[in-house]
Amino acid sequence: MVSPPADGRIVEVLDTEYEGREITKISIFMNVFNVHVNRMPIGGTLKAVTHKAGKFLAADKPEASYENEQNVIDISTEYGEVTVKQVQVCLREGLSAMPQWVILSLSASVSG
Prior knowledge:
By secondary structure, the chain is mainly beta. The chain has one helix spanning 64-67, and strands spanning 9-18, 21-29, 45-52, 70-77, 80-89, 98-105. It starts with 8 loop residues before the first strand and ends in a 7-residue tail after the last strand.
């Protein structure tokens, strides 16, 4: 079972490719009124947390989840490997960045 790592609204569920692997991408947008608490979305062993510098594109830009500054969290689970990204986005120009979560399932056997 996968639980949302943060309060917010699911804005996209998409089967796509990530780093050469077929994945299911689930994007959750947190607005200024959501509780900004982060949770582990699935039981398992935390393997790595990697910070990637990047842009601060607006939240409504599809490329934001790939190009913006982000933390990439790798989790080893009984179902397979799961990658979760915390992506910084801008609501609009001049407004400070806020996190958006992207869950990237890297194993077809992960279900929820």
